[in-house]
Amino acid sequence: MMSLLLKNLSEVVTFNSKDEIFKEVDILIDGKEIKSIGKNMTVEEDTEVIDCTNLLALPGFVNTHHHLYQTLFRGIQEVQEMPLFPWLKGLYEFWKHITPEAVYYGALVGFSELLRTGSTTSMDHHYLFPSNQPSTLIDEQIKAASEIGIRFHATRGSMSRGKSDGGLPPDSVVQKPDVILEDSERLINKYHDSSKFAMQRIALAPCSPFSVTKDLMIESRELARKKGVMLHTHLAETKDEEQFCMDIYGRRPVELMVDLGWTGPDVWFAHVIHLNLEEMKMLKGSGVAHCPSSNMKLSSGICQTNDLIKAGIKLSIAVDGSASNDGSNMWEEVRRAYLLNHLKYGCDGLNAYEILRLATRGGAEVLGRDDIGILKEGMAADIVLFDLNDIAYAGCHDPLVGLVTCGNTSLVKMTMVNGKVVVKDGKLITMDTEKIRLESHKVADELVKLQRSLA
């Protein structure tokens, strides 16, 4: 297996159990894993050496909530300046035209942005399956992830409650429960890898309380626990969702999840904004993906990050769908998470180190991983290098504060996934981003023009 030495790193932020930060050290990588971290290391002649003088190393960011297909639907004028429910209703009319090609290229766009801004692992919540298209859309995402070189947790999303049953999505994009469950089992059997350093894992992810039935939530939970995979859904994102749950179920969103058995270490939720302290206690041990940019743009509210942590809930940071962000820039999401946290909590807000921990080790814990998110011997070689030697960082006396609050770019110096360099000097080296850009925009333009011609 290939050995690689990252030589002369100015600082290595480990996020290990001792919160150690090492200065002027090397990292030796053997194949997929970190072999050792130390000073003035000597290696065999066939070991590749990369000079990392003046560079800072972190574990790769772990993005815990995304909708990759939405990268093709950014900046659509018809849905700007709208809250979640009308925004969704407007975009469903565009989204219902997606094809396997669109899903593939949408994933490549999102993955490219994530890798170039420091993410080494991402999940995706794909729940849209138009009735006139193949049901193998998630296979297209997995293909894209494998080609580009990102660690990927695909979730088999689902919608079973269309407009005719009181839900939000058009009937043409919802599926019957038996179809959903059959494909869920197919994906788990074909792709889920529970081994150490796995590059592909599957989770089950009914979309939201307002687009699936209680029966499907229960059946998905039963299948997931039978197969040993995780569960994910949107929760408590808006007041509209809260009212929907009260009207339909007579329960608040968190109460509904408890009733359905949807809590625990194998469950994580996106957003979780509108809940009280008592409901936080109900979610202890579960995970949350905090999506600051999306929450701000859609005016959904501010996640109670400090309180969630105090309640024993695992917290992470995520970019959410590009149509509500409108990007897949994980480094920028870290900055916004920090700023939004301070807007809410003031001087009691999380510091730069704590925010970065959420984006790395926190994300790994939310996804149920114990082999990523920390830089230490035996962990996966998912490493990101940052170059803070720019005028934008001049005068900053703490590199971590600078990493979170300063800078004129979000492109990293290097991204390494599973021991393989995939981004160098801010450029993706596993695929041609210009080709991805041209092909993706062509597909996106055709989809949007199609809907506008029918409107």
UniProtKB/TrEMBL annotation:
UniProt key word Cytoplasm: no
UniProt keyword Cytoplasm, yes or no: no
Keywords, ordered alphabetically: Hydrolase, Metal-binding, Zinc
Pfam families attached to this UniProt entry: Amidohydro_1
Record-linked InterPro entries: Amidohydro-rel, Metal-dep_hydrolase_composite, Metal_Hydrolase, MTA/SAH_deaminase
Record EC number: 3.5.4.32
GO molecular function: 8-oxoguanine deaminase activity; deaminase activity; metal ion binding
UniProt xrefs under CDD domains: ATZ_TRZ_like
Enzyme class (EC, first level): hydrolase
Start and end residues of each Amidohydrolase-related domain: 57-422
Protein name: 8-oxoguanine deaminase
